[in-house]
Every structure is written in C-alpha cells, then in structure tokens.
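Progress report, Aim 2. The chain analyzed during this reporting quarter is listed below.
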Amino acid sequence: MPLSLAVRIERWPIAGRFAIARGAKTEAAVIVAELSDGRVTGRGECVPYARYGETIEGVAAALRTMREQLAGGLDRAALQTAMPAGAARNALDCALWDYEAKTGGRPAYALAGLPPPRALTTAYTISLDTPDAMADAAGKASARKLLKVKLGGAGDGARIRAVRGAAPQAELIVDANEGWTANNLAENFAACAAAGVTLIEQPLPAADDDALARIARPIPICADESAHDRASLSSLAGRYDAVNVKLDKTGGLTEALAMVAEAQRLGFSIMVGCMVATSLSMAPAMLAAQSARVVDLDGPLLLARDREHGLRYVESLVHPATQELWG
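Predicted structure tokens for the chain:
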C-alpha cells in the first residue's frame, strides 16, 4: 500500500549538560519519520551525527526526498540500497519495522525471527568534567551496576581514579571518543586497568588507530567511530576486540541485526549503544541488544523528560518497549 511520509524535527532538553571529548550540549535534537497509509502509522527516530557531517536540516531533507519512492511502494528490503547507511535511513527503516508490526499484527521481534526481548542492564553515562565533578556524578549513580565514563582529555588518569573512588562497586567502562593519542595510550590504559575498567571505547581517532595493533591491550578495546556497518568489520581485526553497534550508524535495525550476526561470526564482542535521544530511538535498539555483552541505552535517562509511553527504567534495568511506543 502506498505510504505517505511526515518528517518532524524535535528538540528535547537534557537534564543538565552532556559533555564528551568533542564538546557539550544541553538539548537533544532528533528527527521523527512517520509513515502512514491513512489508517496505520509507523514511527522511527534518528539523531544526525555531526561527526560524520550530518546535520538536522540535511537529514530531514534526505528523508523528504524519499516520499515519491515510498508512495510508489518502496519496502524495507529495497530501502537498504535506496539510501546509504546513516541517520536518515535509520528513521525510515525503524518506521517501516513499526508499520509492518502494526499492519501484520505481529511484534517486531517476531518479524525479525527473535524470541521475546527481555529487560537488560544498561550503562549510565558520567559526562566528561573535572575529577571532582565526575566523582560527584558517579557517587550519585554508584548504586547502578554499570557506569560509562566519558574521558578524552588531559588528566584522564585522575578522572578515572576519582570515579572509581566514588563508585567502588560499579562495573566501569570508558569512552574516550577518539580523544587519546599514541603517546598517552599506554599511560591511560594503565590508569584504566588500575581502576578495574572492563572495556574502553574508541581511544584513538578512527583514521589514526594503527597504534592499537602495536601495543599490549590490557583491557578489551571497542570500536565505535571506527565501526559503522558490516562492511567496516573486516578492517578492525588486530586493533579491536569489540564493536559498538548503533542504529544511527548502521542505518537502522535491519543492518544492525545483520552487523551483530557478522561481528559475532568474526569473533568480536558486541556492544549496543545510542545517541542522546528519546525512547523511540532506544526501542528498536533493544532488539539488537539482546545478545550484546554491553548495553548502553541510557539516552532517555539523560533527558529532562521522555516521550509518552517511554521505556521503563528500573534501577539498572531497561525494559522492552510496549506496542504503544514502537514495534
């Protein structure tokens, strides 16, 4: 059935300030794609990646160019070659999953051939700041099982020591967001190892990460900016032990599920992550995360408020979406 497409830009205030090595922000700008046949509407949400040259206006425009093809019957399988991987395709792909689930009367997990999803332990992010400020944030979140610590600047050793002191029982993972160099890699690895960190995301720039193949890695290293979709996986061997699958990079749930399967076949551990966004972004990612070693789907927890029918977060657990939200 021909589908009409509505594209909407939304801005959601962040609770406080979210800071990483590349900068800080106080709101999350998302794009919602809605596909309708006049009776049923499917929704998907995406967050443009400034790191890859995406903008809110550019992604919204890219989505609008698909209206004619959608009206002509473009389906999810054809979408995979009709658009490149990235945020725009993610919004449409997830909207098509939602539409298919609603019109077919079967939940998205069943359409994907998966068992019913279960609640998962999610990381909670500690933003990059001074050691004292990060220790204060970690102390407030110290009852959580898994904390993701943003690093990527001078003095990271002091930061991770401060966080560990404030949250002695929590599992810690680190995200350097390409903020380290080959010169300080060993020093930062040692500081993380001393703090009991169990995973380090993207310590070096994606275009300059060869040093990871030449240095002892006392902690598993996860590719984020270096890993996009299945095509990127073969080049990561020898430098990375894990890959972070994000739907805004893969271009939707369809490719994310395929990437998870291929990464496992190649021997990589799986992390499923997110951008700062609402539960509409997290809902399809929950399906990809069911077999992940590390789940980082805390985006809605970082917002001042979430959308209606949002995911249920209880202590360290995030629960699957209800059909009122997605899928």
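Residues 87-104 form the longest helix (18 residues). The chain has a mean pLDDT of 96. These observations will guide the mutagenesis work planned for the next reporting period.
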